[in-house]
Amino acid sequence: MTQHADADTRRGQVASALVTVVAERGLARTTLADVARTAGVSVGLVQRYFRSKDELLRFGIEYVYRRAEERAAAVPVRLPIREFVVRLMEMFLPMTDERGAELRVWLSFVQASLTDPGMAAIHRDTTARLLRGVEEALRGAQRAGELGAGVDVEAEAAALVAFVDGLSLHHAATGDGFDASSISAALAAYVDRLFGR
């Protein structure tokens, strides 16, 4: 394995440990020592790849966003587009334990982005890419005749992303009232209304 690949592997190992620790302890109570212990490496090794906790945290949120984008990119695009939109947006919902942990981390980072310009920029850029992807899917649905020609795809994409974020937030905050099956059903109902069913 090349040195570059080894460094990428180590950084990924540390980022995965960071997700685990932040999901369990929260951002404020996470230390480099916690992350190192969870990753099974020394604090010195963590500091070799990340000069500060802030640098590690920024890499961690990029890692969470990248994993979500990879899941979204793996959703096969096929007709009907309505089904594709549901499957795509489900990739951002906490439907598994792993995605539930990522949600807790994401919520911690969103809070941090309110006062950290670097994290705010990461969040803003990632959200813009997500919105473009959803807009593209909705335009595809219009071309296929599944979605009305008069639908404002930019506004509806923003509303759909906000709806999914809201489902995720309520799942994290209340659990039982917004379990995986409930949020999946709510998403399907929302998309049905959007598509005029």
Automatic annotation (TrEMBL):
Q: Which residues form a coiled coil?
A: none
- Keywords in UniProt for this one? DNA-binding, Repressor, Transcription, Transcription regulation
| GO molecular function terms listed in the Swiss-Prot or TrEMBL record | DNA-binding transcription factor activity; transcription cis-regulatory region binding
Superkingdom of origin: Bacteria
Q: Which residues form the HTH tetR-type domain?
A: 8-68
- Report the source organism: Actinomadura soli
SUPFAM superfamilies named in the record? Homeodomain-like, Tetracyclin repressor-like, C-terminal domain
Does the entry feature the keyword Isomerase, yes or no? no
DNA-binding region residue numbers: 31-50
Please identify the protein, giving its name as recorded: TetR family transcriptional regulator
